[in-house]
What does this fold into?
Amino acid sequence: MINDRRCGPFTLEELADAGVRPDTYVWSRDLPDWTHADEVADICQFFRKRIADLKRPRPVPLPAAAEETQAAQEETPERIWLHNLPEPEEDPADHDPSQPPPPMLLPLAIMVTLLCFPPTGIVAIYFAIKARKDWAEACRSDSRSSAQLYSDSERRDIRTHMAACVRRSMMWTGISAFLGMIVYAAIARFW
It folds into this structure.
């Protein structure tokens, strides 16, 4: 839905050019209902990859004289150090759907809620609990007694949703810690 009008169908590559934003409602055969684009794991992963590609543009071939000048410039220690940094293969915020949520996810969310900034900490707790529940449901869906009740796509969707909840919980935990530091700094300054 773009400007209150149905558009598409689009491939992942066509979404950005079509004007899809995080709050745009999207739908596909795999989704039960219209959902914000930022809640669909495949779309989020595509846009993260696209942003990463935009941050590291591909080098344009240079003429021979320009290559020598560039090689001389690249010999400075700063450029050598930056050049040798490993490029991340994938987004570190991604959580592997085949793995359980981190064990410290909920205790950390509770801690930042109590010590830092409760309004956003509650959101972090919600997503941490939701991730645990989704993991338990994913484990149930894999059991022999429930094997016929779930299709493979439903199992995959449960695990994908769990991974999204883990990411959101970590994000809100970080936001809570950051806002808590700002509040404590403001209190200390005016105290």
Q: What stands out?
A: The CA atoms of residues 138 and 158 lie 6 Å apart.
